[in-house]
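Quick one, tokens below:
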């Protein structure tokens, strides 16, 4: 599937912001309706501030009309203020935890912004933390806010109105002890253990930009970013996550342990996810190929790349987004995500279908005899 004109413009603008590349598209030909569509697309993809940064680098005659430009500028300013508000809240949280003799490790969000050309333009809405005492951290967060959600990987709290995810695990582990799940579960558990081992071996690093907050090593972030992206394939993934990957690779070349990473990625199809993410960062975001890890192989993955990009821009609607969630609609939604299971879990359609039916029957039986 060819990318739409508005998507192509979005990629071109992101290249200007991320790599200071010159514009390829003739923006003098863009109508105001085109600019409005790009504005909406950039907002949906979590890159509105990055794109605005590119627009103000264009000649004035190529920019959108003043009304839209001023609204875009105002939203970018609000994003910068949200960023600083979240950083201040993270610093306050860090001081509270330090007083309780706990050290915060920042994950994702704030911890990734340092890799961007302008850290203020990395949009994020929550704070992800990890400590060496999950229960104690939960209790501290309860003292200063409220718990909003419980999850096997992390519990979610509100601190000064900002969601805080207190991680128990780094990645979402596979449940189930059946024959179908056993190999995959072991692979994910091995990666989780490896992340803990890397943290123990390489430690964390202080960034004075964040008032001495700690972030993980480059080796940790390499694996963590890939696994986090992989588990969200076909879901809530947006262009911002691809920008995270490109900015991380460009800033951390030579800083991560490639041999250790390649060994871990040998489990299941995790190496393919690395290649897929790197492919798309080079092809669509213009990341210079020299920033790719040395074990990256440029091969023909065009079909897989298109499926990945389609999952960002053209998701199949969820059950709550359709008027009639018919059996045919459910099947199409089920099948539309199969490529993700082929890639990440090595779980092919017949196996996944049987496992899903078993789980559905178990749930139905449980409700009947409750």
């Amino acid at each position: 599937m060819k990318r739409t004109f508005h998507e192509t413009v979005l990629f071109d603008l992101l290249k200007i912001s991320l790599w200071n590349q010159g514009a390829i598209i003739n923006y003098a030909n863009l109508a105001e309706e085109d600019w409005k569509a790009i504005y909406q697309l950039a907002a949906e993809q979590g890159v509105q501030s990055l794109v605005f940064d590119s627009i103000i680098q264009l000649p004035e005659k190529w920019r959108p009309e003043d009304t839209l430009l001023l609204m875009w500028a105002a939203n970018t300013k609000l994003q910068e203020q949200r960023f600083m508000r979240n950083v201040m809240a993270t610093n306050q949280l860090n001081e509270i935890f330090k007083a309780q003799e706990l050290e915060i490790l920042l994950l994702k969000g704030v911890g990734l912004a340092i890799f961007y050309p302008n850290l203020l333009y990395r949009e994020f809405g929550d704070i992800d933390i990890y400590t060496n005492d999950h229960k104690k951290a939960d209790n501290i967060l309860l003292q200063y806010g409220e718990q909003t959600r419980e999850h096997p990987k992390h519990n979610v709290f509100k601190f000064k109105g900002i969601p805080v995810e207190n991680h128990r695990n780094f990645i979402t582990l596979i449940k189930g002890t059946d024959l179908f799940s056993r190999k995959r579960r072991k692979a994910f558990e091995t990666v989780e253990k490896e992340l803990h081992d890397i943290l123990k071996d390489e430690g964390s690093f202080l960034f004075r930009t964040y008032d001495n907050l700690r972030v993980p090593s480059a080796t940790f972030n390499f694996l963590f970013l890939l696994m986090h992206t992989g588990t969200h394939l076909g879901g809530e993934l947006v262009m911002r996550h691809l920008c995270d990957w490109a900015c991380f690779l460009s800033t951390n070349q030579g800083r991560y342990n490639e041999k250790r990473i390649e060994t871990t990625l040998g489990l299941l199809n995790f190496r393919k996810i690395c290649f897929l993410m790197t492919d798309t960062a080079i092809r669509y975001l213009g990341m210079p190929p020299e920033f790719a890890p040395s074990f990256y192989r440029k091969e023909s993955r065009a079909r897989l790349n298109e499926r990945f990009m389609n999952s960002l821009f053209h998701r199949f609607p969820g059950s709550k987004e359709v008027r009639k969630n018919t059996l045919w609609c459910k099947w199409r939604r089920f099948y539309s995500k199969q490529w993700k299971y082929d890639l990440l879990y090595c779980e092919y359609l017949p196996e996944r279908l049987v496992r899903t039916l078993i789980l559905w029957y178990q749930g139905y039986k449980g409700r009947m005899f409750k």
